[in-house]
Amino acid sequence: MNTVTIRANMAESESLETVTEHERILQEIESTDTACVGPTLRSVYDDQPNAHKRFMEKLDARIRNHDREIEKMCNFHHQGFVDAITELLKVRADAEKLMGQVSDTNRRLQDAGREVTAQTEEVIRCRIQQRNMATTVEKLQLCIPGETPHLCKNLSVYYSALKTMEQLENIYIPRVSQYRFCQIMAETLPKLREEIKEISMSDLKDFLESIRKHSDKIGETAMRQSLGPGNDLVDFSPVYRCLHIYTVLGDRETFENYYRKQRKKQARLVLQPQSNMHETVEGYRKYFNQIVGFFVVEDHILHATQGLVTRAFTDELWNMALSKIIAVLRTHSSYCSDPDLVLELKNLIVIFADTLQGYGFPVNRLFDLLFEVRDQYNETLLKKWALVFRDIFEQDNYSPIPVENEEEYKAVVSRFPFHDAEIEKQQFPKKLPMSQSVPQIYSQVKEFIYASLKFSESLHRSSTEIDDMLRKSTNLLLTRTLSSCLQNLIKKPHIGLTELVQIIINTTHLEYACKYLEDFITNITNVSPETVHTTRLYGLSTFKDARHAAEGEIYTKLNQKIDEFIQLADYEWGMAESDGRASGYLMDLINFLRSTFQVFTHLPGKVAQTACMSACKHLATSLMQMLLDTELKQISMGAIQQFNLDVIQCELFASSEPVPGFQGDTLQLAFIDLRQLLDLFMVWDWSTYLADYGQPTSKYLRVNPSTALALLEKMKDTSKKNNIFSQFRKNDRDKQKLIETVVKQLRSLVNGMSQHS
Questions:
Q1: Average pLDDT for consecutive 10-residue bins of the chain (757 residues)?
Q2: Where on the phi/psi map is residue 80: left (φ > 0), alpha (ψ -120 to 50), or beta?
Q3: Which of 45, 458, 486, 592 is deepest in the core (most CB within 10 A)?
Q4: Sequence-ordered list of residues with C-beta below 8 angstroms from that of 637, at least 6 positions apart, any chain
Q5: CA 638, CA 251: separation in Å to the nearest integer?
Q6: DSSP character for 600?
Q7: CA 185 remoteness from chain centre
């Protein structure tokens, strides 16, 4: 039983293997090429007996299966196929019609294309010929570059062309000289050389014109960056080519002479300034730029070429230019009235000189010129500050500066070095003795020093030289400009006694501040004032002179005021007796003098005393002149008495010490001549006068005989009316004779004095 089962299992296993093998064979037949089917089928027969029958059964089954699938597919696509055939049948007629049109178009295109084809072939032949000609020309150019005029227009091959022509003349043409074209070439070569010379010379002229137009740009670059023309601003190749060409042609001297001649002409044009150059800094800048550009180019030519220009030639040009430049700057700078413009000119001259000095040109004369420009700068500064000072003086109120608090006080002393222990102790509000113009003037002097210092910058000067320049320019400001402004101010009609007093006070404080200006300059230059040859400031003399002028003007104005009062005098010279009181005009005059001298308390004592003495002397002289006036013919004793009352008031005023500081009766001595003369007439003490005349102890020592005679003549009996001597005739005619005797004696004294003199 087990055996049967085993066999059955084995048979079943073999049957499965056979089926699997057949399935593989069928798949291989379906997927492989027909040529490979034979070996596959052979494997069926190599297997178990009757295996091919089972394979055939399997194959038939597979075929039937495929037939069924094909049939299904055909059934599925049959209707689409029928529809496609129907559509094809419909377009058959259109396709035949289109085919006919295409054939007709093709025929016509073929007919038209025959002419185009022929022309295309002709173009092709022409282009081949053109290409061959171009190749021939190119080869000829390579072989004989000097042969064609076209080559002469190529600036880069001038030199090589000349070399080639030289080789043709000396080597190649002699070898084939029997040919006619060689003779033609030999005749053409000199013409080509001249053509090259002309073209190169034209190129040089263009170069010269270009650098003439652009010399200001070249100079601007050089002055700004200290660069030579080695950058892209200038192309010097035309000069080099032309120089080489003329050298090769043996005509270098002609080229050198032409170049130098043209550059001399251009130098004269560059050195010619515009007429309005002095009006703006741009005019000066363009002028300097052009000159720098010119000489920078020449310096480059000098170093880049051998002998085209020489150092002697450039030195000659520079010396000529330097003289012209200095003359031009002297002329145009004299027109400058703006210090800022003069300062800009100085800066341009410094840059100009430094730039050209860097190229080896001597510039000492330019730096010497700067001293002249400095003087011009100082002149413009002085004129500017004259206007500043004048404005300050015109706006001043000539009153002491009021300060309400500590802040205002510090504001003033920060601008002006004022120190007064007594005033500092005073309570606010208080007044400073000087007027507002004093700190303003002091500040402006410092501003002037700063402005003057600006000119010294970049001049490569020592501190001592700068210190000397600052002090000299400041001295000019003080001694000339400020002094002139003060003198003019003092002489102005609207400046009265009060203003003159304030001016004297102001100059006193400004004089005191001069030492601080010295320190101010020292701090700037770091040069000690004790250094040998250090210039001192002359401000002391300036303010002293101004103060003396103001003092003199005070004396003058006081005398003028006294004269105005004197003109108001209205004496009745024939009056019988006096009014018993002084004249009104004189009392007004004395009151005016008292109030005026009270203002003088702020002046230095000597000034006030001198003014007071001057006023009293002038008053005494005016009164004496009034008595002795030739227009006055008669004077009565009553008028003498009235006049005496007025002189007494003058003496009382003098003795009241209107100005402190006089010793004893010094001020009263101003009226001593009047006093002795009036006493002589009031007392009628002629015997004493005549007896003591000429003696040092004479009571009437100050009475001159001519003065006494003139007054006595006015009192003689020349008419009956109002004659003081009429009563003498009534009482004692002998007195009349006495008077006649006195007159004779006085005349004798006067005559003796004249003979002695």
A1: 52 62 76 67 65 78 86 85 83 82 86 83 88 68 44 52 71 72 73 73 71 69 59 74 78 85 88 84 87 87 84 90 90 86 89 88 88 89 94 93 92 90 88 93 94 84 85 90 92 89 89 89 83 66 86 90 93 88 93 89 79 93 93 90 94 91 88 93 89 89 90 67 48 66 85 69
A2: alpha
A3: 486
A4: 681, 715, 724
A5: 121
A6: G
A7: 66
